[in-house]
Design goal:
With 347 residues, this protein is of the alpha/beta class. The protein has helices at 15-26, 76-88, 130-145, 164-178, 210-222, 257-265, 284-287, 318-334; strands at residues 5-10, 31-38, 46-49, 52-58, 69-72, 92-95, 124-126, 148-157, 197-198, 229-236, 243-251, 270-272, 293-300, 307-314. The chain has two domains: 5-99 and 321-334, Rossmann fold; 131-316, Dihydrodipicolinate Reductase, domain 2 (2-Layer Sandwich), CATH 3.30.360.10. It has eight helices and 14 strands. The strands form two sheets. The chain has a seven-stranded mixed β-sheet, with helices on both faces. A seven-stranded mixed β-sheet has the order 9-10-8-11-14-13-12. The two termini are 35 Å apart. The model has no long low-confidence stretch (mean pLDDT 96). Bound molecules: adenosine-2'-5'-diphosphate.
Length: 347
């Protein structure tokens, strides 16, 4: 890789921020300098990185001076407020929030699927929603061979998707319940330990929650296909980390499950996990801490000649967020397109 780059992590104290730090520590990213940014609550906190302790700073007017790449995971409102400062300073803002994902001038990238979209960036690149990333990595290699007409997804989403505080809340709820006490809720509206509930993002007029609509709209943008029909039911489950998804695919023509298996065996970012004898398939505990999306239970849909069923698990914090963001940064470095010639003007 080429010259070293100055990187800032915005939201460094959060679940994704800490994962970004860990991934940067171990990947061969050409790093000149790393700056850690969070809210004023975290100023002065020290986080270890490559044998040193880096001090967390609050965002100021000069935070992005000389910074080339911002890896942001601090929520949509923070991104909306801070991205303009970052791109004015000449940095590229790789954003994990939903703030800019559907902006037609902002590329929405899963490097295994649409790396070419990065070429047009204007200072902001959006990291898709976690469930969408995991599904896209598993499904796109099949779509490339035979066009998908319709996707029906059901998700089983871990607490990690709601951040570090949500993970701690589920653990505290489990301890409370096991010791005979009432579980307390703060991040989630209902107890998640020993329970599950439909994803609690706002509902639209059709009864779909925001998370489900992200899967619908973001998949179409990433696949550059408005024709693909997508529907989803998103559910939060009492798993700490790593999401699971049951995916039903309808193709334009029949797809032999063995052919799909062969394609997915060598697909980038995918690991096939299938032991039919042992009834062993992807599980969130096996996906936790792994880069790949684990895919298995590929089978013919018995209700539809041109349909396939599959099951996947992927680490939401890793490939669903931090890793995908770093892979986008690596792509920019590899193609030498970190700097945009034409910066987006945000009002
Ligand atoms: P802090 O820890 O200081 O609140 P998670 O999604 O795991 O909850 O993490 C959210 C991340 O976003 C945290 O690092 C949090 O910092 C950071 N954050 C939240 N609000 C702001 C803000 N206004 N400015 C900068 N960082 C923020």
């Amino acid at each position: 890789m080429s010259k070293p780059y100055r990187v800032a992590i915005l939201g460094a104290t959060g679940a994704v921020g800490k994962e970004l730090l860990e991934l940067l520590e171990h990947r061969n990213f050409p790093l000149a300098d790393l700056k850690l940014l969070a809210s004023t609550r975290s100023v002065g906190i020290k986080l270890p990185f490559q044998g040193e302790n880096l001090t967390v700073e609050a965002v100021s007017e000069s935070s992005f001076d000389g910074v080339d790449i911002v890896l942001a995971s601090a929520g949509g409102s923070t991104s909306k407020a801070i991205a303009p400062k970052a791109i004015r300073s000449g940095a590229v803002f790789i954003d994990n929030s939903s703030a800019f994902r559907m902006n037609p001038e902002v590329p929405l990238i899963v490097p295994e699927v649409n790396p070419g979209a990065a070429h047009d960036h204007k200072g902001i690149i959006a990291n898709p929603n976690c469930t969408t990333i995991l599904m896209a990595v598993a499904v796109y290699p099949l779509h490339k061979i035979k066009k998908i007409k319709r996707i029906v997804a059901a998700t089983y989403q871990s607490a990690s998707g709601a951040g570090a505080k949500a993970m701690a809340e589920v653990q505290a709820q489990a301890s409370a319940i096991l010791s005979g006490q009432q579980p307390k809720t703060s991040v989630f509206p209902y107890p998640l330990a020993f329970n599950l509930f439909p994803h609690n993002t706002p509902l639209n007029d059709m009864g779909y929650c925001e998370e489900e609509m992200k899967m619908v709209n973001e998949t179409r943008k990433i696949f550059a296909s408005q024709e693909i029909r997508v529907t989803a039911t998103c559910v939060r489950v009492p798993v700490l980390r790593a999401h699971s998804e049951a995916i039903n695919l309808e193709f334009e023509e029949p797809f032999d499950p063995d052919e799909a298996r062969e394609i997915l065996k060598s697909a980038p970012g995918v690991k096939l996990v299938e032991d039919w004898q042992a009834n062993y398939f992807p599980m969130p505990i096996d996906a936790t801490g792994r880069d790949e999306v684990l895919v298995g239970r590929i089978r013919q849909d018995i209700s539809l000649q041109s349909g396939l069923e599959l099951w996947l698990c992927g680490d939401q914090i890793r490939k669903g967020a931090a890793l995908n963001a770093i892979q986008i940064a690596e792509l920019l470095v590899e193609k030498n397109i970190v700097k945009s010639s034409d910066a987006l003007v945000l009002t």
